[in-house]
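batch job 7 of whatever, protein = DJ-1/PfpI family protein
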Amino acid sequence: MAAKILIVTGDAAESLEVLYPYQRLREEGYDVHIAAPARKKLRFVIHDFEPGFDTYTEKPGYTWPADLAFSEVDPGQYAALVIPGGRAPEYLRNDPELRKILKAFFDTDKPVAQICHGPLLTAAIGGLSGRRVTAYPALELDMQTAGATFQDAETVVDGTLVSARAWPDHSRWMREFLTVLRAKAPVT
């Protein structure tokens, strides 16, 4: 039986940051599930840069069904966790069910891949204290406030925690995560 990977997300997640790891991990032979606040069709977004804007713009993205509600997740059934970015982490960090899930992964030192605004979730449970991370560069102060050492790099690996800035860093992010994942939870 293939090891299971959990992706936690919600509406307004960055389309590429959910679907790229979802497809890439399935391609490797992992069984990947998406969990959200409720079982429903999620509405993702596309963040991109436009000339004349000081920050990214947001456009409607893909829709995708959530396999599970956070309340249905048994973290013990999963070998690793993926935390996409977008706007979803801003409100998801307030969800007590999700915080329990995140804490279970960090307490057992299972592999975690986070990208963009995803580290807002790990910061909410104190999971970044003393760690080296990267995130969307505008979150540098948030990461420092959470006790992390922020590095503006394509990907940062700190033990079983693998972080990346944003979707342009996908290839390196997943390559590094798969290195950690194959060592801790190889496909059988």
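notes: Residues 90 and 120 are 7 Å apart (CA to CA).
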